[in-house]
Amino acid sequence: MQDQLIIFDTTLRDGEQAPGIALSPDDKVAIATQLAKLRVDVIEAGFAASSPGDFTAVARIADEVDGPVIASLARTHPDDIEQAAEALRAADRKRIHVFVSTSPIHMEQMLRMTPSEVMTSVTESVRLARRHVDDVEFSPQDATRSDPDFVIEVCRAAVDAGATTINIPDTVGYAMPEDFVALLSKVYAEVRGGNEDVIISTHCHNDLGLAVANSLSAIHAGARQIEGAINGIGERAGNTSTEEVIMAVSTRQDHFGVEIGADTTEIFETSRLVSSLTGYPIQYNKAVVGRNAFAHESGIHQHGVLRHRETYEIMDPASIGHQSMIVLGKHSGRAAFADALDKLGITVEDVDFQRAFDRFKELADRKGEIGEEGIRAIVSEETGTGTEEMSLVSIHFSGGSQETPVATVTLDRDGEVIEVEAQGDGMVNAAFVAVQDAYRIAATLTDYRVSPLTSGADAMAKVEVVIKVGAATFPGRGVSTDVVEGSVRAMVSAMNKAAAAAGALDGGQVE
């Protein structure tokens, strides 16, 4: 049987230390409940002595959340340890996590303690913690900038005093993977030794973008606990991402040779909950849980994924409670567009498909990404008439804010280019007059509606018009990132229907 890797989640303690995050006790209980569904092994619920609110949160989680071990952080101060023990009192499984700095700069500039004083505080605090709980973790803060021999000496003292987990923190994200492995190997050999009950742990920060890499590399050095936070939140550049560790080990069992007990299908929901309650957005290209983690826009990638998911996905998105997304944009090909129509239940003939696809590519060059409503509108615009008497080539305007606008509309009729210029009361009206002149049809605009399909400065809009020619009415639709262009496309669509109904393009004029 493979070794078990313990997942220690510190979203509620170190994660909350990210600037601007202030979780209420209710928020913390909600996240802890979800972490229990994710089946992490340890939840560091907070730093009980840091504030009344944190004490309350730790106490509530200890009382209300079942499953994982519930931990509270504590300095080597007796009062910290007493408060942690009190807050954890209701937990079925509890841990006190004691820490003290061991690097020269921390001891001299922050603690104002000598190495011998630090040694004494470690022994006394771990012993005190063991009087309250059987599970005590010790961390030499800033271990990767400490004298390795001093780290070994301090950790041995902690084990002798009763610590059951020795955690080696890369507190400021300073370590390189090979250096971190060397340190962890030394700790494993010289602190744990033959003591099977002592767990070696890691806690890495992401200042150089190496938190996950350092944490995972430590597995080969004997580490059997990794500490992280959901979405990688935390001090400065954040912590090791809990979800990335879980999926790396789950996906590459062949490489790591350890097992995890997490329910990976809860990852996506956990990530979204943490983002919502902390107010920290998830970067689009974030590994595992980012919006684009399972999104494909390139036509080559889309074609491959549609044929067989594993061509471009090393993880099954369903395994984290998510799904693949074929994002339709400027790089998408015919296969992805056809797949999107199929999923929307839209069936079109070959000629209509080509027209819709060409229009999609034209809009995608401007918009970047086109969603379901945009696809529906494009298909409606391009396939709604069954015939196309004329199509819009371009539209241009002249005249400043104090002048009457002049619209120049260029249309194509079976290869014949028709250019018409007209004035009007505003750009849309000028364009409407020009379109009427091009068709030589007198029409009245009876309804005009603009509906946004997306948001943002480059938003797509759907324009719907109804024109009246004699006693008959004809609807038209147009889609564009430019409202005026969409309006002209809608007018051309309606005029095509009117012209087809009246045969007016052969020289007749409908009054």
Q: Keyphrases for this structure?
A:
511 residues, alpha/beta, TIM Barrel, Double Stranded RNA Binding Domain, 8-stranded parallel barrel, 3-stranded antiparallel beta sheet, 17 helices, disordered C terminus
Describe the protein in words.
The chain is an alpha/beta fold. The protein folds into 3 domains: 3-278, TIM Barrel (Alpha-Beta Barrel), CATH 3.20.20.70; 295-383, no CATH class; 391-506, Alpha-isopropylmalate synthase LeuA, regulatory domain (Double Stranded RNA Binding Domain), CATH 3.30.160. The chain is 41% helix and 21% strand. It is built from 17 helices and 20 strands. It has helices spanning 25-38, 52-64, 78-87, 104-111, 115-132, 148-161, 177-192, 211-217, 242-251, 253-256, 267-278, 299-307, 334-343, 350-367, 372-383, 427-439, 483-502, and strands spanning 3-4, 6-9, 42-46, 69-75, 94-101, 136-141, 165-170, 199-204, 225-228, 258-259, 295-296, 325-326, 328-329, 369-370, 391-398, 406-413, 416-423, 444-452, 461-469, 472-480. An 8-stranded parallel barrel has the order 2-3-4-5-6-7-8-9, surrounded by 9 helices. Strands 15-16-17 form a 3-stranded antiparallel β-sheet.
